[in-house]
Specification:
mainly alpha; two-stranded antiparallel ribbon; 4% strand
């Protein structure tokens, strides 16, 4: 096995973000058996703080009971979206812990 040295020695939960997010890949460093910690880590990685609201997901998002902070932007304006996501994460980090 030429890749044996690159394989983990234990079970690993690995996160690979979509390429447009410019996030780094990461893996869960806690124990797989610590359900609360694993669930928190998974939600942080898989359910982003900033999401797009559409006609098809609006009911699902409102059912969560969380307030909305909505950015209206031109479809080609990716910089405003990135700045918005960064600022929301910075200002609301205490709300997600």
């Amino acid at each position: 096995d030429e890749f044996k040295s690159e394989r983990p020695l234990r079970d690993v939960v690995y996160y690979r973000p979509i390429s447009i997010l410019n996030e780094k890949e990461s893996y869960y460093i806690g124990s797989i058996n610590e359900q609360e910690s694993l669930t928190t880590w998974s939600r942080d990685k898989c359910i982003p703080l900033v999401r797009e609201i559409t006609f098809s997901n609006a009911e699902e998002l409102t059912d969560e009971g969380l307030p909305f902070l909505i950015l209206f932007h031109h479809i080609d304006d990716h910089q405003s979206v990135s700045l918005f996501e960064h600022e929301v994460a910075k200002q609301l980090i205490h709300e997600t812990c």
